[in-house]
Specification:
alpha/beta, three-stranded antiparallel beta sheet
Length: 395
């Protein structure tokens, strides 16, 4: 049983300077990406309208295995009800039920996994007496917002496998991938509807294997991801945040599984590689992953602004009745800024989704409503070729 970690940076407040998304580290590689309060996340205000969507015969689907959904008005995710069937961000109930079964303690005998009962990103904090927002809270919502900004015509399908502290157990992930392979095989053979197709799998987590031999590392995960690639699914994985060339799995499988498997390192806004991003021969794609702006759950932590002035006498409804410094864990705006290879991966996935749509528009042989392994492989291969040719995915 391996434990995967989220690949979004979140500095822990401890003497070692350890930061979330890696087993060790901190200090200079990430200090410039943190706020003065020591966090990589902070709220922002965005006035961009939600991009309109075209009518398509079938929308490409990006499956995100991560922390699950949470309330966000911009994405149309309600507070307590599941998104509607036609929403941009939806929940895959079939795959989510697999996670629930595999994390139910009775299903594991003597082994006890922290249960994941449903698709909601919770708890917001695992220390209610302290009230600090958990390190991975909002991971899926942030990823979904990046995809919606870049490829609004694509659908995001969410399956919660990650806990709010960024931990992912391997066995539920393997079980989900098994069911996904079975489903896509049936879609290919015409035994399931085309609406159940998944085009891109986005994985923003990983781990370092106990062996340094990439040919024998993580065989169970490799087998399943190889099967998905051979079914024509594009797999996009975060390369990790440890400033190392040590293979970070599953991203390091790019050297074994071919060009339809993308291992994504993180770029700064100016196009240079971030100091925290992993590198090495397995990284075959680069995308922006530092100080990116995206959607965040509507939550508020226990932190307080550095300065707050009491209500002014005589204040009326046309003027704010308080003055405050920025509250760095108040996300009621529904937007935030964050850094990490976690967010480079969905940007790369969104770029690939755009090319799937563009190629479908321009070539009937690559139409998104054509099923079958040959058709899906041709579409996926062409999308990668076009993205690399136009340097939308920096090699």
């Amino acid at each position: 049983e391996h434990l995967f970690l989220a690949a979004g940076i979140e500095r822990y407040q401890d003497p070692t300077g350890a930061w979330h998304g890696s087993p060790a580290g901190g200090g200079d590689p990430v200090s410039s990406y943190l706020t003065p309060g020591g966090s990589a996340r902070r709220p922002v205000a965005v006035v961009m309208p939600l991009p309109e969507r075209r009518d398509l015969a079938r929308r490409p689907v990006v499956l995100v295995l991560d922390t699950g959904i949470a309330e966000n008005p911009w994405l149309g995710i309600p507070q307590a009800a599941p998104p509607s069937p036609g929403a941009r961000v939806r929940v895959d109930g079939e795959l989510q039920s697999i996670v629930r079964i595999w994390t139910t303690p009775t299903a594991q005998g003597d082994r006890t996994l922290q249960p994941i009962d449903d698709y909601w990103d919770r708890p917001v904090t695992d220390e209610p007496l302290v009230g600090q927002i958990d390190s991975a809270t909002g991971h899926t919502v942030f990823i979904a917002g990046l995809i919606a900004q870049i490829a609004p015509d694509a659908d995001v399908m969410s399956v919660r496998v990650m806990h709010s502290d960024g931990i992912v157990y391997e066995q539920p992930v393997l079980a989900v991938l098994d069911r996904l392979i079975e489903r896509l095989t049936r879609v290919r053979d015409g035994r399931r509807e085309a609406s159940e197709m998944v085009d891109i799998l986005c994985l923003s987590f990983g781990y370092y294997d106990e062996t340094s031999d990439t040919r024998s590392a993580t065989p169970l995960l490799r087998k399943r991801l190889d099967a998905l690639v051979k079914l024509g699914v594009l797999v996009v994985a975060s390369a990790g945040n440890d400033s190392t060339a040590t293979p970070f799995y599953p991203a390091a499988l790019s050297t074994e599984l071919g060009p339809r498997f993308r291992s994504v390192g993180a770029l700064n806004p100016n196009g240079t590689a971030t100091l925290f991003s992993n590198d090495g021969r397995c990284v075959n794609t680069w995308a922006t992953g530092a100080v990116v702006v995206s959607t965040f759950p509507v939550v508020q932590g226990s932190g307080q602004p550095a300065n707050s002035v009491a209500p002014r006498p005589g204040a009326n409804g046309r003027r704010p009745d308080r003055r405050e410094a920025l509250d760095e864990d108040d996300f009621i705006s529904g937007w935030g800024v964050w850094s990490g290879a976690s967010f480079a991966a969905p940007i790369a996935a969104a770029v690939l989704a755009k090319y799937l749509i563009e190629n479908s528009d321009n070539d009937c042989e690559l139409a998104l409503d054509k099923m079958g392994t040959d058709a899906t492989i041709r579409r996926a291969t062409k999308a990668v070729d076009m993205a690399v040719e136009h340097t939308a995915l920096a090699p």
